[in-house]
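Task: fold both queries, return tokens.
Query 1:
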Amino acid sequence: MADSAPLPFRAAVEALRGARLRPEIEIDATRAPQRLAPHAYALEAAVVDGDEDLADGRLVLLHDPAGHDAWQGTFRLVTLVRAELEPEMAADPLLPEVCWSWLTGALHARGLSAGEASGTVTRAGSHYFGGLAERQPASQIEIRASWTPREGSGGVPDTAAHLAAWCDLLCQIAGLPPAGPGDGSVVSLPQRRGPSTP
């Protein structure tokens, strides 16, 4: 991150770097997209259980000091989250609505607002043929979303809390139970079966 970046953006990135996350989350900085905003910072993360990645995703912080009409603010968070599902779960007609509610619920549970939220939930199925025919069919869910975090003092959003909420979403889509005392209304996906042998 260049020292010439505006102070609010630098403060928001430092908060992301200093966030304390669940031990199942492995997270690293990655190359940020260059054309979406004057300033950008990106993270990629995976929920790991032993040698298996249960879910993965990418979170991008965008900043335009001049503001952006579509964002209704100067910051924007953009995400992609993916996980494999049991085929029976993927067939549930309510799955897209449930997955979207996991995102909004994760933010709400941490007292965060998500202005101008938008996104898609996509499920895909893979069937294997020929030399791969012994593999079981696989289903995947993908959430793409963006939202405007409310800016606090100095025009800086609480990016550490937004990152923690995003990690809550990653863990939930991976089938892990909530980290803290739950309120009983949170429903997680069952954990996937182990990797199938080809």
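Query 1 returned. Query 2:
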Amino acid sequence: MEQLVRRTESVDDGRRFLFALGEHDLPLQVESIGYNPHQEPILRPKGYPCFHWLQTLEGEGEFELSGRQFTLPPGCGSLLFPGVPHTYAPKDKQWATIYLTFGGSLAESILASLDIRHTEWFHWNEDAPVTAQLLAMIEQAQHDEDRSGLNASAQLYQFITTLKKYGQTGSRSSLFQHLEKLDPLLQWLELHYGDPEIGLNDMAALLGLSPRYLNALFRQAFGITTYAYLIRLRIRKAKELMSRGGRKSIKEIAELSGYRDPSHFIATFGRTEGMTPDQFRKLQGIVF
């Protein structure tokens, strides 16, 4: 892979770090990152060629996108997809921004796997680490000779996943907020997953929620229903038990994992893991 060449530019007392793209893209690759204390008006009728993250540090900006206008106050950011026409300008006399542009051979698919599929506006709570993480990237770019671009790529992935965890779109809660609501139940399940009597109504009652709302929370947090989460937890615990070796039979493993019927356990294990419990044991080098 060709090395990335980083160049530093001053932007009215701000800082801008550019990474020239090599012949072979990294899966995620930073093109530029920086801080602009005096953000100027920008008109891009053909959009930007890379993914473009822009957020406000101080003041407020105004966006126009597809005929609609948006404001960008502190604690908010926009992720613009490549080629989306847009304009933005300061709403106040001074608008300080930080920004990140990126691409890479898997950039779009990584974003899609996090359910980010189009240009999106994010906001977050004051204690969320979104801004701190981006500022840390700028700080590292200033002091680190990242000639391969690998450090920046790793930090970019961490930033995107942080945005997924703490970012809110519209009136929807963040993934972090969903996990906070579910945490008492998740901790309880870690201790009681082996009880075969656990049902959806029991889990909903533990949080004082309706079964329907609990399923909605699990779908938003994990993309699966509450009971599907319990099944995956039981299978994971069964794998942990089998990985430890010992002389426990499949029947004992099934019972400890919350299954009364070993055949049900074997069928569920095969459906989720694509192999039988005995085949899994052999992969771990365990011969029973």
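Both queries returned. Flag for query 2: The mean pLDDT is 89.
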